[in-house]
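Predict the holo structure. Ligand: zinc ion.
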Amino acid sequence: MNCDTYLSMLETLPVEELAYGDARLHAATCRDCDRVTRVVAERERNMLMAYGELYLPGPVDAVAARARELSRRRRAALFYRIGLGLATVATVLFLLMSRRVVPTPTARVPVTAVPKIMNAPGPARATTAPAAARAVRATHQ
Ligand SMILES: [Zn+2]
């Protein structure tokens, strides 16, 4: 076995597979291949540790149940938020409508319109109080 075949085996196989046979003999005799093998073994170990930290510590079912519970609570919170928003809008509208002053129709009649009615000829004049008093005085004299 030469260096090329050993390095091509190191490319494709895990380091533990090169621990016996001709590969082991070559790594024991060749300093360069031994150094490369140590570096590759160190990188493999680091990679396995990193993957070990990446995996979730708990079982998958518990994580899924927790996610489902969180989703259900978020949905309920959304409905509560919508209901509270509608109640707030209704309260504000009620307060605005109850504090609005409704103008009375008599307040819109201008004061200058009253003498025109009293001076008007016909039945409007006879029904006014001063005209009725004058008529009563005239009949008693
Ligand atoms: Zn070699």
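The chain has a mean pLDDT of 82. The pocket of zinc ion is lined by residues 3, 6, 26, 30, 32-33 (CB under 6 Å).
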